[in-house]
From TrEMBL:
Gene Ontology biological process terms from the UniProt entry: autophagosome-lysosome fusion; intracellular calcium ion homeostasis; regulation of autophagosome size; regulation of mitochondrion organization
Cited Gene3D superfamilies: Calcium-transporting ATPase, cytoplasmic domain N, Calcium-transporting ATPase, cytoplasmic transduction domain A, Calcium-transporting ATPase, transmembrane domain, HAD superfamily/HAD-like
Protein name: ATPase cation transporting 13A2
Topology of the protein relative to the lipid bilayer: Multi-pass membrane protein
GO MF annotation, one: ATP hydrolysis activity
Organism name: Oncorhynchus kisutch (Coho salmon)
Cellular component aspect of the GO annotation: late endosome membrane
UniProt domain P5B-type ATPase N-terminal: residue ranges: 27-97
Chief site of localization: membrane
SUPFAM superfamilies: Calcium ATPase, transduction domain A (SSF81653), Calcium ATPase, transmembrane domain M (SSF81665), HAD-like (SSF56784), Metal cation-transporting ATPase, ATP-binding domain N (SSF81660)
Recorded family membership: Belongs to the cation transport ATPase (P-type) (TC 3.A.3) family. Type V subfamily.
Record PROSITE patterns: ATPASE_E1_E2, COF_2
Lineage top rank: taxon: Eukaryota
Signal peptide span: none
Length: 1134
């Protein structure tokens, strides 16, 4: 089964289903297979587990599907008691089917729990479906009108579960078992058992101690993190619920179920669930979920039937985990507000975010995938070494038991168990440095991914430009035209324009201080009017304004210019919505006279809702002029509401139509001083920058040019797409911008520009708005990739369109970064490969990265740290691989000579040399500049594999040379051939190989540590340089003049010949020179000649292939040529 079809009621609002079934949201991406236990198979597996000493259970844990297939039979879902789930990423999970029994022990309901969510069996649909009251997105009209909780569904708490985001905190014993069963520790246990059998007691004991410390630290961190998330997620409070009888009950928030009607007190509440606001207004701080520090005004759902969605109607939805600061107007006589519960537990917005932290999606990054493949390759090398050791040792008098032990020992040497831990040290250092710079990360693997970002999207307002705006002026307009720009709104004559600016807002008072959107605060401040709100249950203001329920009152200043102005009361408010691009209010004058509706929003949207004769003929040209100069422009309108209209139940659609156009409010939005510098830095580093904003397209183009996204010699082409209508086909057109549109540009200038464009002389950028983007995606998908390749400005984009843009760019194989500062960017921030939220919060669950900086200077810092971390991970990976290959070579050479390294010799190499170097290698910081070329991400690329192979050959050559030089000396004494392995230590063969390989561990740390252009030079890593010098001195001391105590401890042969020992040091130096030169030549492109031999290949990245295609396309984009979809062309011709 892959889910169930979603059904919707024919109309009305959202409610419990009249058939008594909860609405269920399908999970079409989840594949579900049913199985039943087979008793004899279960018993057989128990016996197999005992006989295999538990290894069979370990295998079943690593491969859940094998465990199910071994113990169960496949069956239809209706008869299953075990389910095998497979998600869209191919990961498999085994879950047990649960059931709810009635009083007669008869099953009422079958369900399973997965990642905190509940899926119930719907026999009618033949599938398991996710329980969710609002999935069909309707709320019943009776809930809106009467505000009571409907009779609960049968066993509703059993159906929906408790209202608790319960983060499991496992016991230490369970965590210990799960940690020990990790493949890494299973391999460690196998290795330790092998070493103990081979009498490597010191080494085994040391690894046991280190492993235990590692396990304890890991368990502590996991437990601490689980407790932190649990305390953040789990929220229990007492709430008041209104019943159908009108009674009010106080109960724990844990008992809430969808459909309950919750009373929100006047002083506010930390919301324990998602709820739709039915009556009253709430001022809510949503920073915990969105990172947006400005509180948001929530207003009641419209009274009429219609589709409800928590995403599209955010301004009517209270989200779990957010703080309601104050509530008012919903309960006459008692204050507060009323809301209906729509989602509980993990089904809430907060639950969804907590779930994304607990169960993150697997990261599709080539570096991590190649690391697993390379470990398998090392396993193959270990197999070859095992075969070689068996052949060599079988020729001696080695017993079969020793032969097996020696052969298996090769595996523990070649596959370094510390490799996964070692390659994360660079990320840990980078995370620490970012935190010091005020950038917090909740997903460390994303740091490496940020090093591969090829395109960065930026929100405009508050990100590239200042958050606050200053009023530049007001221009009144009517059908006769526009009047002169009035710089100070206080100078406006008394009339609807001044009232509109004073009243059309969602600002509220908290502790006597106005609170709300910075733009609206500036607008009210510019008028001089003062905001007043009813205090609690005080009816004085209601009486003053004709008995209407007053939300707020705006009073004019006591000054001669506005002496004729009268106070205005807000009695109905329809808040701003990004998707609607507007807000509106309904007002009355004292005594309830003269009811007016005001609207404020995007000029194009407001003009479309106004009577055509009231909009000035110069509207488009005037708007274009202001927007081209970078001003933020809002339009205002109004209309008179006549006496027969019921203002308390009036609908938004009725208010926002047939309006009278009032004029334009022009605001100056300055670009932040850091924006241009950062954008220039990114462009010089060949990183594409894209602006995604909800503002006007011409304003966005101006800001893009000001901050450097568009160069002075680069032109803008506007993309205009229209959807299909009853009278016209969808169309797509490209026209020249920058005041050079078809209205103002002469045909000769277009022809000249077109000639330059098609000859590749002029660079161009595309600009598109949200409506055109939607039409482009729906009707012209074949042109979408080309537009995305050249698109730089995306304006009037709704939040869901921002998310769609990010995902479409990712389909072109871009690694996409997104930087934003508000709730409108949350979806895009989470969809991007690297999301950066500019927020005062230390860590926001809205994105992987949160910067305390209020500008985009954190973006190049993050990319530099990402590149540094990625290169460090590469270096550590190569070092750990070479360390294994050095030791692998040493052991095979000594096996050939019938000896081996000693217990403490292994310990000295692994603990003193390699571990110490691996820890401090990654401390080097990032380069101060962004290089135009991104670092590689593939471990299986030719340079990496060639480097490892050639280095290994040079290292083997060095060790063999040391051995041959030793055996050629006159004083050479052969080892005792009657003994084998470490039993015949000390001997000259072992000592010479030990001396040279000790230097090789040190010199390879220098060779593989990369600096320019992604990291600072090696000498800036002072700790690493000091450790190198100390270890080099220690190794030289052991080679040239070891004290007897250390020599005996390490079982080294005493060599009196100082010239020979100096020769060994010289051989190590020569080894270093050759390896260093080889690495440098590979970095400089020595292997490019091999690529020339194989011929030029197309890039695997789609955007690079498209870039080549567009560069070679002399006729794209076709200017001022209307295009229609191919299928429409065929229809038209036919």
């Amino acid at each position: 089964s892959t889910g169930c079809p979603e059904e919707e009621p024919p109309g009305g609002f959202c409610s419990p289903s009249p058939r008594g079934e909860p609405h269920c949201k399908p999970e079409t991406h989840m594949d579900v297979q049913g199985f039943r236990w087979v008793r004899w198979r279960v018993w057989l597996c128990h016996i197999g587990s005992v006989l295999s000493l538990g290894l069979l259970l370990v295998l079943f844990r690593w491969r859940p599907r094998l465990g199910v297939l071994a113990r169960c039979n496949s069956c239809p879902l209706a008869f299953a008691n075990i389910l095998l789930l497979r998600d869209s990423f191919g990961q498999q999970y085994v879950v047990e089917l649960l059931c709810i029994l009635n009083g007669f022990q008869v099953p009422l309901l079958h369900y399973y729990l997965f990642e905190g969510l509940r899926y119930i069996w719907m026999a009618r649909k033949g599938a398991f479906c996710r329980v969710r009251l609002t999935s069909n997105a309707y709320v019943k009209h009776t809930l809106i009108s009467t505000h009571f909780t409907p009779p609960p569904l049968a066993a509703s708490s059993s159906v929906y579960g408790t209202n608790l985001i319960d983060v499991p905190v496992k016991s230490f014993m369970r965590l210990l078992i799960e940690e020990v069963l990790n493949p890494f520790y299973v391999f460690q246990v196998f290795s330790i058992a092998l070493w103990l059998t081979d009498s490597y007691y010191y080494y085994a004991a040391c690894i046991v101690i280190i492993s235990l410390i590692s396990i304890c630290v890991s368990l502590y961190e996991i437990r601490k993190q689980s407790n932190t998330i649990r305390s953040m997620a789990q929220q229990i409070t007492n709430v008041t619920v209104r019943r159908s009888s009108g009674e009010e009950d106080s109960l724990s928030s844990v008992e809430l179920v969808p459909g309950d009607c919750v009373l929100i007190p006047q002083e506010g509440l930390l919301l324990p669930c998602d709820a739709a606001l039915l009556a009253g207004e709430c001022m809510v701080n949503e920073s915990m979920l969105t990172g947006e520090s400005v509180p948001v005004m929530k207003t009641p759902l419209p009274a009429a039937g219609g589709r409800y969605s928590p995403e599209t109607q955010r301004r009517h939805t209270l989200f779990c985990g957010t703080q309601c600061i104050q509530a008012k107007g919903g309960r006459p006589g008692r204050g507060g507000a009323i809301a209906v519960v729509t989602s509980t537990g993990f089904f809430t917005a907060k639950g969804d975010l907590v779930s994304s932290i607990l169960y993150p999606q697997p990261i599709n990054f080539r570096f991590y995938q190649d690391a697993i493949k390379f470990l398998l390759f090392l396993g193959g090398v270990a197999l070859c070494g095992t075969v070689y050791s068996i052949v060599i040792l079988s020729r001696t008098n080695t017993t079969w038991w020793e032969l097996v032990i020696r052969a298996l020992d090769i595996v523990t040497i070649v596959v370094p168990p510390a490799l996964p831990a070692a390659i994360t040290t660079g990320t840990i250092y980078a995370q620490s440095r970012l935190k010091r710079e005020g950038v917090f990360c909740i997903s460390p693997p994303r740091i490496n991914i940020s090093g591969k970002v090829s395109l960065f999207c930026f929100d405009k307002t508050g990100t590239l430009t200042e958050e606050g705006l200053d009023v530049w002026g007001v221009m009144e307009g009517s059908g006769a035209g526009f009047s002169e720009l009035v710089p100070d709104p206080r100078l406006l004559p008394q009339g609807p324009m001044l009232s509109a600016m004073a009243c059309c807002h969602s600002v509220a008072l908290l502790g006597g201080q106005p609170l709300g959107d910075p733009l609206e605060l500036k607008m009210i401040e510019s008028t001089g009017w003062e905001l007043e709100e009813p205090a609690g249950d005080d009816k004085t203001l209601d009486s003053e304004f004709g008995g209407h329920r007053v939300l707020a009152v705006m009073r004019p200043p006591a000054c001669p210019l506005q002496s004729e102005s009268v106070a205005v009361a807000l009695v109905q408010r329809f808040p701003f919505s990004s998707s609607l691009q507007r807000m509106s209010v309904v007002t009355v004058n004292p005594e309830g006279q003269s009811s007016l509706a005001f609207i404020k929003g995007a000029p194009e949207m407001v003009a479309s809702l106004c009577l055509r004769e009231s909009v000035p003929a110069q509207f488009s040209n005037t708007l274009r002029t202001f927007a081209s100069d970078g001003f933020r422009v809002l339009a205002l309108g109004y209309k008179t509401l006549y006496g027969q209209t019921d203002l308390s139940t009036i609908e938004r659609g009725e208010v926002e139509r047939d309006m009278q156009f009032l004029g334009l409010l022009v605001m100056k939005n300055l670009v932040k001083p850091e924006s241009a510098e950062v954008i220039t830095t990114l462009r010089l580093a060949h990183l594409r920058t894209v602006m995604v904003t909800g503002d006007n397209v011409l304003t966005a183009v101006n800001v893009a040019r000001t901050c450097g996204m568009l160069g002075s010699n680069e032109r803008v082409i506007f993309v205009h797409a229209t959807p299909q209508t009853a009278h016209s086909l969808p169309s797509l057109r490209f026209h020249l911008g920058e005041g050079g549109t078809e209205d103002t540009a002469t045909q000769s200038s277009i022809d000249m520009y077109t000639q330059g464009l098609y000859q590749g002389v002029i660079n161009y950028h595309l600009a598109i708005n949200g409506k055109s983007f939607s039409a482009l995606c729906d009707h012209f998908p074949e042109y979408l990739p080309k537009v995305l390749m050249r698109g730089t400005v995306y304006a009037r984009m709704a939040p869901e369109q921002k998310t769609q843009l990010v995902t479409e760019l990712q389909k072109l194989n871009y690694r996409v970064g997104m930087c934003g500062d508000g709730a409108n960017d949350c979806g895009a921030l989470r969809a991007a490969d690297v999301g950066v939220s500019l927020s005062e919060a230390e860590a926001s669950v809205a994105s992987p990265f949160t910067s305390k900086s209020d500008n985009i200077s954190c973006v190049p810092l993050l990319i530099r740290e990402g590149r540094c971390s990625l290169v460090t991970s590469f270096s550590l990976f190569k070092y750990m691989a070479l360390y294994s290959l050095i030791q692998f070579s040493s052991v095979l050479i000594l096996y050939t000579e019938k000896t081996n390294l000693g217990d403490l010799q292994f310990l000295f190499f692994d603990m003193v040399l390699v571990t110490l170097l691996a820890i401090v290698m990654g401390k080097g910081g990032p380069s101060t500049e962004l290089h135009p070329q991104r670092p590689p991400a593939s471990l299986l690329a030719l340079p990496v594999l060639a480097s490892l192979t050639l280095h290994t050959l040079l290292l083997i050559l060095g060790q063999v040379s040391a051995l041959l030089i030793t055996t050629s000396q006159d004083w050479f004494v052969p080892l005792n051939s009657t003994m084998s392995g470490a039993a015949n230590l000390p001997n000259l063969e072992d000592t010479s190989v030990f001396d040279l390989s000790g230097y090789q561990y040190i010199i390879m740390a220098v060779v593989v540590t990369k600096g320019y252009p992604y990291k600072r030079p090696l000498y800036y890593n002072v700790v690493f340089v000091c450790v190198l010098l100390v270890l080099f001195a220690l190794m030289s001391w052991l080679v040239l003049a070891p004290v007897p105590f250390l020599r005996k401890l390490l079982k080294l042969y005493y060599i009196p010949d100082m010239n020979f020992k100096i020769l060994l040091v010289a051989l190590a130096a020569l080894n270093f020179v050759f390896c260093f030169l080889l690495e440098m030549l590979i970095d400089r492109g020595m292997l490019n000649c091999l690529r020339l031999l194989r011929g030029r290949r197309q890039s695997k990245k789609l955007y690079k292939r498209l870039d080549v295609l567009l560069s070679d396309s002399p006729s794209w984009p076709p200017l001022d040529q209307p295009l229609v979809p191919p299928q429409c062309t065929v229809i038209g011709l036919s």
